[in-house]
Amino acid sequence: MAHDRLWWRVAWRNLWRNRLRTLITASGLAFGYLGAVLVVGVSDGMLVELIENGTRLMLGEVQVHSEDYLPERNMHHTIGGYEGTDLEIFLNRITSQEDVSAAAPRVYGGGLLSSGEETQAVLLMGVDPDREPRVTTLLSRLVSGRTLVAGANEILVGDEMAEQLGAVLGDEIVVVAPSSDGSLGNDLFTLVGILDTGIPAIDQNYGLLALPDLQFLMAMGPTRIHEVVITVGNAKDSPRIAGALREFLSDSELPVQVSSWTDLRPELADMVSLMDASHFIIVIVIFGMAAFGVANTMLIGTFERRREFAVIRALGTAPIGIGRTVVYEGIILGVISLIAGALITWPILVWWHNSPIDLTTVISGFTVAGAQWRPVLRVEYSVQAPIVAALGLFLTSILAAMYPAWKATRVPPADALAD
């Protein structure tokens, strides 16, 4: 033990014989740690932004349907069949699950909107004005007017749909839709709000009605719904929560299908997986460059100490002792770099997390895999990323010292002393 302690002291002193070189190398590793953690943090922030924008606008994080509803979306395939289900009991059962934050029912239909001489095809969506804001941000995207009041025959449309119809707030719009009994439902609805979601597919094609109003228009009883949209605590946990909810509801008399957003939007899930994998590649590149720098610095130091190593070898020291010294230098360098890196990284990480960088004045938002991405760079941090980066830094400093250590053990004493 005492002999091993001696080699640690030798390694420590060797590092500080050239302070500038040691500080530059340690700084490189420390900033490599900072870069790795920030790359993961910014990437996670972009992923969270992408997932939230892809799910919180209208999709939701988990959805429940009748087993036969998807993918055809037949209006007759409601949860519980033609009889429907007790909506309050069903929703309370879903929200009783620990990971479920809120749930809201929906009804869908297709039809026509007519205002004056203009007529447009529309996808009708019946929402609960009280519950819907708890699961999505759709009703908060109003640019003018107000939200729906159930039972008042009111409608919301996108700004592009309103423009196509030539309709303004307060106008009466004729809504025509096929009913579940085979008839054709039609009624007058007052335009009370105009939406701007930034997604053309929604702004051009959707019309929102209060849930009971659309149920009445389509001759569907108040117990019949097509969909329950669910929000959870963490969108990344949606597949696990959907599986648990599927198992929980399997013992009920209602045959239902429970899907997470990864099932409903596979292209968005693929994009998230691709981005998730890419930041690890970037981290590997960062630490690879750091390893090259450490190895290069330690090789220079090894070459400068060839005569030293030769004298130590001539005095009877085994090659493994010399190699151990160089490895110990790498370990000490790694510890110093890790402490410095943590001291630099955490304040920046916390500040950036609390104060996202808004680039909306420089570039506009765009759509990725059907989800709108706002140019706001924010950092998400967890315990996992800094720990993994710390292990990466530590292993980098050790592995980078291996080759210089091996070179140090290969110094021939006679040749080195003769130089």
Topology:
Blueprint: H1 2-15, H2 19-55, E1 62-66, H3 87-95, E2 100-115, E3 118-127, H4 132-135, E4 142-145, E5 154-158, H5 159-165, E6 172-178, E7 184-195, H6 200-205, E8 206-210, H7 211-217, E9 227-232, H8 238-249, E10 256-260, H9 261-264, H10 266-304, H11 306-314, H12 319-354, E11 357-358, E12 366-368, E13 371-373, E14 376-377, H13 384-409, H14 413-418
The parts where pLDDT drops under 50 for at least 5 residues are none
Query: If strands are numbered along the chain, what order do they take across the biggest sheet?
Result: 2-3-8-5-7-6
Along the chain, the helix and strand elements come as: HHEHEEHEEHEEHEHEHEHHHHEEEEHH
| SS content category | alpha+beta
Domain count: the total is 2
What's the overall geometry? Answer: elongated
Mean residue pLDDT: 84
Number of beta strands? 14
Task: Write structural notes for this entry.
This protein is an alpha+beta fold. It has two domains: 2-55 and 269-418, no CATH class; 62-264, no CATH class. The chain has helices at residues 2-15, 19-55, 87-95, 132-135, 159-165, 200-205, 211-217, 238-249, 261-264, 266-304, 306-314, 319-354, 384-409, 413-418, and strands at residues 62-66, 100-115, 118-127, 142-145, 154-158, 172-178, 184-195, 206-210, 227-232, 256-260, 357-358, 366-368, 371-373, 376-377. A hairpin with a 5-residue loop joins strand 6 and strand 7. Helix 2 runs antiparallel to helix 10 and helix 2 crosses helix 12. The relative contact order is 0.18.
